[in-house]
Amino acid sequence: MHVPSRNESGLPMQPIYDASTLEGFDADARLGAPGRFPFTRGVYPSMYTGRPWTMRQYAGFGTAKESNERYHELVNAGTGGLSVAFDLPTQMGYDSDEPIARGEVGKVGVAIDSIDDMRTLFQGLPLEKVSTSMTINATASALLLLYQLVAAGQGVESRLLTGTIQNDVLKEYIARGTYIYPPQQSLRLISDIFAYCHREIPRWNTISISGYHMAEAGATPVQEIAFTLANAKEYVRTAIAAGLDVDDFAPRLSFFFVVRTTLLEEVAKFRAARRIWSRIMRDEFGARNPKSQMLRFHTQTAGVQLTAQQPEVNLVRVALQGLGAVLGGTQSLHTNSYDEAIALPTQKAARLALRTQQVIAYETDVTKTVDPFAGSYFMEAMTDELEAAILELIQAVDDRGGAVAAIEQGFQKSEIERSAYRIAQEIDNQERTVVGVNKFVLDEEEPYEPMRVDPQIEVDQCERLAALREERDNAAVERALDALRSAAQGTGNVLLPMREALGLRATVGEVSHALRDVWGVYVPTDAF
Fold first, then answer.
1. Which residues is 297 bridged to in the sheet?
2. Cα–Cα distance measured from residue 500 to residue 483, given in angstroms and rounded to the nearest whole number
3. CA neighbours within 13 Å on the CB side: how many for 142?
4. How confident is the model at residue 108 (pLDDT cuts 50, 70, 90)?
5. Cα–Cα distance between 336 and 357 in angstroms, integer?
6. Domains in the chain: boundaries
7. Residue 76 to residues 69, 80, 120, 486, 488, Cα–Cα distance (Å)
8. Which residues of 265-281 are buried (b: 16+ CB within 10 A; e: fewer)?
9. Contact 146, 115 (CB under 8 A)
10. What is the dihedral of CA 490, 494, 500, 501, to 10 degrees?
11. pLDDT, mean of residues 455-472
12. How far apart are CA 318 and CA 321, in angstroms?
């Protein structure tokens, strides 16, 4: 008798699957054709047979000038889209010269304080041609407006701009922590972004609803998808309540997931997620536009699975993860650099990460046919089982009053923490093998020289800020910030006065503080 093992989500995996596994399986209802409801096989009819996914490499560190140089290197190396990492002060709505920002400027991403920095960041880059993704949440409105203003300064019309802002603050309350305002005020800001982009920047993806960070915090694949889609439902409800038509904003919704080395479960996870979302949008929210029913997503390889020990082995992990994302039908992909468990990636490591995608796209045959796992006994069974488990967990969130109410009760956070603790125990007990960490260990690690951020960057950034405040019309800036506060107190769209203030060289910190003055800040309750 075969004893089944269990996958990352705790579901059984049988040693052998056969025709009896799919007895009664309705392929038309469960799968459909690629590009057709319920989109199990992919959101586009031809998928990668016409062109490969977007190779979008995440980068940004230090000053805007240094990051600009890295972006030019990536574009010249063949990347099809840019993905911007911001430092923690920028993410949290603080300027580089505030005491709370000390020691963090330029560390985990680029420091952007004002329109001056944004101009430098994108200098010489063809914004009408390059798709730009910005990993920014609480301050997403300000960074998007700065991008629009810089593009206008280059003569690029807003209607031509393409890209994505992450803008998913609900997952920050669950897993990451870079929130500013309370949940209801954050949702108001997000619905203002939806409405603004529908009018002003129609090709922009206004949100990338993210499971990645929850997965990195320890969520299982089932938890990752369930909590992400529950958050997505909250955003859709908020936008509809604000008077937006679902088919006006839903086509610009996008998602962001992790891909792990457990390749088969990951492929099934992506297929199940597409099917679930299409039915949620059609049956719960009445979406009729097929684009509103599509779950389009970006994928990043799992950083939490990279190891500081024997870091070159991470090249193998990333290649397998990237293959899983492609077989699962991702729309764009970031492959991590092998040295990211140690520090910011070196130029060589970043180039190798991009080359990994290019090998998958151009030297394998995975782009030759759509959804090659379709009809597999195992794959269809696992897709169905994951779908059932995900729907059960979404229902558990709904039973608690929806995503925001569940967040306030600490539900998602406590569930993820339990999973993270279990994984850590399994590694410590050698029940889960991590090559180079608890098995196949070297007696002595080879030396590795990581990339380091120069502390002078913070000094220089603060000096630039001081000069900006001397040069600009401070009275005009203060009037614009007052208008922003007034809009926040009322029901008007706050992005209009925010754009005015930023154009006058108000800083990201100043517009964030103006909203703090009106909305306050969120103080979390402990899940325990």
1. 255
2. 9
3. 33
4. confident
5. 10
6. 37-360+373-428, 476-520
7. 11, 10, 18, 45, 42
8. bbbbbbbbbbbbbbbbb
9. yes
10. 90
11. 95
12. 5
Amino acid code (one letter) for 180: I
What the block records as the tokens of 400 is 């608690």
Alpha-carbon gap, residue 7 to 83, rounded angstroms = 31
pLDDT recorded at residue 79: 75
User: 505: closest CA among 156, 145, 138?
Assistant: 145
CA 246 to chain centre: 22
The two most distant CA atoms of the chain are separated, in Å, by 80
Reported as type and span, the H/E element at residue 104 is none
- 200-237 as b/e: b if 16+ CB within 10 A: bbeebbbbbbbbbbbbbbbbbbbbbbbbbbbbbbbbbb
Residues 41 and 370 sit within 8 Å (Cβ to Cβ)? yes
Q: What is the pLDDT of residues 121-167, one digit of tens each?
A: 999 999 998 899 999 999 999 999 999 999 999 999 999 999 999 99
The span from the CA of 315 to the CA of 425, in Å, is: 25
Here the tokens at position 179 are 């929130």
Closest to 134 measured CA to CA, from 144, 126, 142: 144
* Euclidean distance between CA atoms 99 and 304, whole angstroms: 30
- Identify the H or E element spanning 320: helix 314-327
CA distance 185 to 49: 43
Strand partners for 122: none
Report d(CA 420, CA 220) in Å as an integer. 9
Q: What's the pLDDT tens digit per position in 500-512?
A: 999 999 999 999 9
Tokens (6 digits) for 227: 């909590």
525, amino acid identity: T
The residues, any chain, with a CB within 8 Å of residue 177's CB and separated by 6 or more, are none
Chain-centroid distance, C-alpha 300: 8
Q: Is the pLDDT of residue 528 over 60?
A: no
Q: Which CATH number is 37-360+373-428's, of 3.20.20.240, 3.30.230.10, 3.30.420.310, 3.30.460.10?
A: 3.20.20.240
Both tokens of 239, joined, read 């936008």
**Which residue, among 59, 50, 70, has the nearest Cα to 368 in the 3D structure?**
50
Distance CA 357, CA 296 (A): 19
- Measured between alpha carbons, how far is 477 from 500 in angstroms, rounded to an integer? 9
Q: For the CA atoms of the chain, what is the radius of gyration?
A: 23
> 483-512 b/e with 16+ CB inside 10 Å = b?
bbbebbeeeebbbebbbbbbbbbbbbbbbb
